[in-house]
Amino acid sequence: MSHDEILSKVAEFAASAYHYDGGITVQTTFEELGKGSMKMIALTSMIENELDAEVPIREVMTMKTVGELVERVADEME
To answer: Locate the Carrier domain: which residues (predicted)?
Structure first.
């Protein structure tokens, strides 16, 4: 799966988990999305179930942008 495809999927999952209507890019911050640990759990669950990439929630909580998460998911999928 290409980096752009991973971004597209992660953006789709983030929009669903955070009920976010705006465009999500690699520069979108979790602060903009609204943070929230339950939303992050939903996001990481979608990533694990749909992309078969496990990124621990405690690790995601230290990330500032969606781009950081996309990079981590890409690493996990290699």
So the answer is: 1-77
Q: Is 19 left (phi over 0), alpha (psi -120 to 50) or beta?
A: left
Q: Please, what sign has the CA dihedral across residues 23, 26, 31, 34?
A: positive
Q: How many domains does the chain have?
A: 1
Distance CA 73, CA 49 (A): 12
Domain of 59: which CATH number?
1.10.1200.10
Q: Which residues make beta-bridge pairs with 39?
A: none
Question: Region 67-78: what's the mean pLDDT?
Answer: 95
Can you give the residue range of the structural domain that contains 60? 3-77
Which residue is listed with tokens 């998911």? 73
